[in-house]
Specification:
The chain is 42% helix and 16% strand. The chain is an alpha/beta fold and 459 residues long. The protein has an eight-stranded mixed β-sheet with strand order 5-11-12-10-9-2-3-7. A two-stranded antiparallel sheet has the order 1-8. Strands 4-6 form a two-stranded antiparallel sheet. Helix 8 packs antiparallel against helix 9. The two termini are 28 Å apart.
């Protein structure tokens, strides 16, 4: 999650993030099994020893722990599937590539559905056009992705329209609850919705900026530090956000490349001595990263924030975007995509850079990678999807995979996180608020926070 730069607290007035996921589809899993290895180890009661008293207060004991983990794994599989189908519905409402019909704003469609009790008249024609496109031979990259999803989730063509409308109703119910009920009740109500909703793969170029700032802090604290092994939890895949769908380029996972670019440009790592693992709960994301390892991608980078008379992007973010990709790109001057109100560029990743990146399927709540420890673990915009009990397990796994003196970088400000990280030996070190844009008439600018924890003990 990677993640988009803003967690759910900021997507209240921008777009949905986030995070990182898994679809229950045998055909897809079989394909990805050829391209990646699953090296995970299931979490045990012994792994959470520093948190056992807190877990028992939540009703999770030594005797019930395994059953609890089984239940979370099953719930996460459901949430991954729902997250992918959420993206399908947002794509169906907004894409201009498979239909000439005008795009539909999801929040307005949700309001019309819930308040009338019937599917709005402009939705069915778009679903019809989408199904027609699904049955076509179009090679549009997003349509190709969603074609595979529809064919696996709804194998009977005759039942697809009804199934899509059912998913539309489910997805719009969440959007309505978030936009028109929970927001009025306050941040905690919104947070509760995210801890039960489908797991989103959405990410955005802005996610890179908060991570870059965090790595800048790491560099300033220890200018001679070298980072060799990095784990990115929930790197995500840019598919179809809840609003402002941009189709200038194919779906891409930006965060791994932006992290490598930042590490190299800041002098924290050297190419050839750097291992970056992108670990996502969604096998589709893992498969995408695995293919990129063999086929260097050409990244179409488009800022998710559109500058306007009321939205002003900061000079600092503009400067960051201008240099983004220089450390990993081959220097080609490729024509940027057409997005007048958005910062945009195209970066062709050098083949030797892709050799630094590998991918693994990982549910960070229920499992960990039993490999050499990492110097740096990054988890942006995935922690809001976990309740406090799940958060304890996730942080236990992070601590278990981090090397002594290693750094954990995230952007989750939940108060409970402080006690959890301290209990597992991840001492809080730094917090920085990052401003990306100002918005006239809003209660404040578009900002995010980045927090650093360091694992106790010397290397």
């Amino acid at each position: 999650m990677q993640a988009g730069v803003f967690g759910p607290r900021l997507f209240l007035f921008t777009y949905n993030n986030c995070v990182h996921l898994r679809v229950a589809c045998c055909a897809v899993v079989a394909l990805i099994a050829l391209q990646t290895s699953s090296r995970t180890r299931r979490i045990t009661w012994q792994d959470v020893a520093p948190l056992q008293t807190r877990l028992e207060a939540k009703g999770v004991t030594a005797g019930s722990f395994n059953a609890y983990v089984d239940r979370i794994r099953q719930e996460d599989a459901r949430r991954v599937r729902e997250g992918d189908l959420d993206h399908l519905i947002f794509y169906a409402l907004q894409s201009t590539h498979f239909t000439k019909l005008p795009a539909i704003e999801p929040a307005l469609s949700a309001k019309a559905l819930i308040e009338s009790g019937t599917v709005p008249s402009d939705v069915r024609p778009r679903m019809t056009d989408l199904l027609r496109a699904i049955d076509s031979s179009s090679h549009d990259p997003r349509l190709t992705y969603f074609r595979e999803l529809v064919q696996s989730a709804f194998p009977d063509p005759k039942a697809r329209e009804a199934a899509l409308l059912g998913e539309y109703r489910r997805t719009m119910k969440f959007v309505y609850d978030k936009e028109f009920i929970a927001q009025r009740a306050g941040p905690e109500a919104v947070a509760d919705l995210y801890r039960a909703r489908g797991l989103s793969t959405d990410t955005a170029v802005e996610a890179s900026y908060v991570v870059y700032n965090g790595l800048g802090i790491v560099k300033s604290l220890n200018p001679d530090r070298q980072i060799h092994r990095v784990l990115i939890v929930g790197p995500g895949l840019d598919l179809a956000p809840r609003t402002s769908l941009l189709e200038n380029g194919p779906p891409e996972s930006y965060q791994p490349w932006a992290v490598i670019d930042a590490l190299l440009s800041l002098g924290l790592s050297r190419l050839g001595d750097l291992v970056v693992v992108g670990a996502d709960i969604n096998p589709r994301v893992v498969g995408h990263l695995a293919r990129a390892h063999a086929n260097p991608p050409t990244l179409t980078l488009v800022s998710g924030i559109a500058a306007s008379s009321t939205v002003h992007v900061t000079d600092e973010y503009r400067d960051y975007f201008a240099q983004l990709g220089r450390a990993i790109g081959d220097g080609s001057l490729l024509r940027p995509p057409s997005a007048p109100a958005h910062l945009s560029k195209v970066v062709r990743v050098r083949p030797e850079v892709t050799q630094s990146l590998s991918a693994d399927e990982l549910d960070i709540v229920t499992a960990r990678l039993p490999v050499a420890p990492f110097d740096l673990i990054i988890a942006t915009n995935i922690l809001p999807y976990f309740d406090d009990t799940q958060l304890m397990l996730a942080i236990s796994n992070v601590a278990g995979m981090l090397a002594p003196d290693g750094v954990f970088l995230h952007n989750e400000p939940r108060p409970a996180l402080g006690e959890i990280t301290e209990a597992v030996g991840l001492r809080f070190e730094q917090l920085r608020r990052v401003t990306i844009a100002s918005v006239a008439g809003a209660s404040g600018p578009l900002t995010d926070v980045v927090m650093l924890h360091r694992k106790s003990g010397a290397k």
